[in-house]
Amino acid sequence: MTRILLDIEFHEMDAQIMQSGSLVKNALTQVLETLETSNREKGGAVVVADNAIDDLHIPIKDCLYCGLQFSATTDFCPNCGRPTERALRRLGPS
User: pLDDT (tens digit, 9 = 90+) per residue, 72-82?
Assistant: First the structure.
């Protein structure tokens, strides 16, 4: 069961990283084009359009046991393997 949850979390994080990378690459391409052409209007549009990147911010939590910081959507600490607050809430009282 634990391995399945870790695999699911890994795939979710991988998808987020890929999406972030794509958005950053597109934004950097636009910035470079703007710098090359000195187009102030386009430069302003690049700054305004970075909302998609801002929306990808995910809350960070600290491990209750080892203190490592990780995504708030994680059920198990990637460092020590113990359950996070989120996992404990989902599992309920034992």
Answer: 888 888 899 99
Between CA 83 and CA 65 the distance in angstroms is 9
pTM check: above 0.85: no
46 in Cβ contact with 34 (< 8 Å): yes
Q: How far apart are CA 61 and CA 86, in angstroms?
A: 10
Spell out the residues 6+ positions from residue 66 whose beta carbon is closer than 8 angstroms to its own: 77, 79, 80, 82
Cα 41 from chain centroid (whole Å):
30
Total length of the chain: 94
